[in-house]
Amino acid sequence: MRAAVLRDGRMVVRDDVPDPVPGAGQVLVDVKACGICGSDLHFAKHGDEMLAAGAQMEGLPDINAGIDLSRDIFMGHEFSAEILDAGPETETHAPGTLVTSIPALISTTGVDMIVYSNTTIGGYAEKMLLSAPLLLPIPNGLDADRAALTEPMAVGLHAVNAARIERGETALVVGCGPVGIAIIAALKQRGVENIVASDFSPARRELATTMGAHVTLDPAEDSPFHQCQPKVVFEAVGAPGIIDDVLRRAPAGSRLVVAGVCMQPDTVHPFYAITKQINIQFVFGYDPAEFANSLRAIAEGEIDVAPMITGRVELDAVGDAFTELADPDRHCKILVTP
């Protein structure tokens, strides 16, 4: 079968990948759509740094241990798919059922995350394996494209849940890429009455308004903190200097939720946060309930993710799509449709 893989920092297409064979508790699926995530772009550019950081980090298992960058890397974790077949003694939904899943594959040897792997195939392929116990059937006739955005929307919901924001508190979202947009959508769903979004890109500010922001600001004109007094700030940029700037400018007693993934060393002045008693919460991923709730919200029309889908490509064009996503004015979410 065909699959797009990361090789020497570039996405290339292989047509010689063996069809995966489902084991017990697994299903073989036909991939219908898979979103290109910013973390995939980060890994393509900073894979060696990410692997090194994971190896040095204590307190959590290194999910990327054993990855060899000199070999092809399978990626793609924002997917929807159709069930083709099931492994031996596996009870699951009928063939033809459209599903999505938390990106994890359970096997007799343990759990492999469907994120970056030399062996576990992801959504940038015609077919892949999923774990039967983790499958969520896609309800309400929701199409495959919008269902594929369940995973990134769960990331935004997790950040909003961690903030414990109340409806009457002002939220400022710094950065309106896919993560920031997902946060804005979750804030709107929660009923937050004053959502402010800040981004240099006019296209991203326009999308932020579409997805639920009440006010959008251009930080090139003035600091957003001079134009609003947020109680909760969501940092969704992931670039050095942003966290320190927020701590310097944010109101006393505010809360900062860091959702942007910065791969470079950064510097902050604790004095700002200490003096103003700012609570800082770093967030990552989501839990199974947040994933399921995101799918339900999309399927029931509480969140319209269609405006986020700004492009569709086949496997042959995945490399070009990675390049295009570097331009914030062109795209929010490109879907790969194998």
TrEMBL record:
It comes from Mycolicibacterium wolinskyi. Residues 23-139 form the Alcohol dehydrogenase-like N-terminal domain. Residues 178-299 form the Alcohol dehydrogenase-like C-terminal domain. The keyword Oxidoreductase applies. This is Alcohol dehydrogenase. Keywords: Oxidoreductase. InterPro entries: ADH-like_C, ADH-like_N, GroES-like_sf, NAD(P)-bd_dom_sf. GO terms for molecular function: oxidoreductase activity. It holds the Pfam family ADH_N.
